[in-house]
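Extended Data, panel c. Modelled sequence:
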Amino acid sequence: ASAVVVLRPAQLMSSKVAEMLPTEVATAAGLKYLGFDPADVDEVVAFADISDPAAPPAYGLTMKFNKPFKGSSIPQEARAHAQLGELNGKKYLQSQHPMLPSFYGPNNKTLVVAPDETLRQMVEAQGQSPGGPILDRVRQAPAGSDLYVAVDVASLRPMLGMYLGMAKTQAPPDFQPFFDLPNFITAAELTVNLSGPGPTSLVAHANDEAAAEQVMTLIADANQKYQANLKAQLAEQAASEDPIERAFAQYAERVSAKWMTPFMPTRDGASLTLFHREGLDESQKTMLVAAIGIAAAMGLPATMSAREAARRVQAANHMKQIMLAFHNYHSMRRTLPAHASYSDDGKPLLSWRVHILPFVEGGHQYNQFHLDEPWDSEHNKTLIAQMPEVYTNPNLPLEPGKTNYLAIVGKECAFDGSKTGLGFQNITDGTSKTIAFVEADPAQAVEWTKPDDLEFNPDDPKAGLGNVRPGGWNAAFCDGSVQFISDNVDPQVLKALFTRAGGEVVDVPRAAPAPPAAQDRYEFRAR
């Protein structure tokens, strides 16, 4: 592992300091997303290995409960990707996705959560005592702490070097030396004790004493430069014609000796202690916990917003890849794919999602299909589990093999339901003002190979849409762009966007490029 976290929720939430913690939020979130109250968890041990930038991360965690725990209480959304399996003679929820977790209970008070391959390695290793830099530090850590975190910085250097190396070239010269800090540090440990008298500390371990001294020198230089810059700013402010600005400069200079005192670590050999308190008194604990609680409460909306923005952008990227495949398909065949292929007697066989496989790097999969058989034939249904990543939606934990990327199908749409596809020349309203496919509601999701999509309803064009993400849903336009459609969009405008040749004049605003978390929802207005 490159990082290990040990947390004792029940110990912390039952202590006196819990009065200042957002325990109500923790309980509500635990029951909603995990199926249990964190106050019922004695200990969580989690690990992650992200040391290889080219490999998918490995992770896992073990939870020990203070009362019997039933796997059936795990919410359906959290286990939709898993099916019943058997491991080490016990029934468990086996993940059907390589990166999503399986759920295994070795006894009725323990739950192990990890990707299936990692889980099997963990079960096989029961009773062994493997070594390693992180495990050795965990074993030496004080027992019973509320929180303990150990990070093997040395194992992360390849990944950190890749990102920090790029950032270093863009940083001001004064800051560039700090990008080399991971080369001097081998590990870091954080210990927090709020419910008991144990130490609360943050310690970094350098490669050796010489490296530790280099870190001390870097921090001292940074402090001197910071003080010099601040003095220059205060001198400029002290010369201001505004008496309030001059007074503030005098105040800042008077107190700077206290609040600008360098936060220098203490060095003991190759170890650097950045913070250490053998026991926090009640007032210190109260202030610290209150600050953590308030910061968590204030940061929760921003964190959720950022996560949603990231999911939305990832889904949009998948949809753009699919639209690029449509355009490449059109370039080769002069038409878009039909919504389905058909048998000689007129029965639909396979979805358009199968027929664009060669254009989404799925040529090998495409060659495995029996194109003259329906999607659920004995042979073709074995390929449902091999759904390409591009058809997954990061907002939805759908059953394996299901997708909610559905074409809008209707006589007036880009997919008209006929046996042959239309060309861009048939989209007379303009490709930039005609929607090809959407991310539909979870209830509309289908097996990706099934020739089933979202039927256009001119009387209710919003049917089957609006329950994927907060505020709206993504739509892929025939020009290859992906737009976010507000839930408040005028139904008549949406009807115009779903039809290819209605002759309506629709104003589709284009948003300026922005960071994913700051992108605004698109609003559509008819004119």
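Residues 509-527 have pLDDT under 50 and may be disordered. This feature is highlighted in the accompanying rendering.
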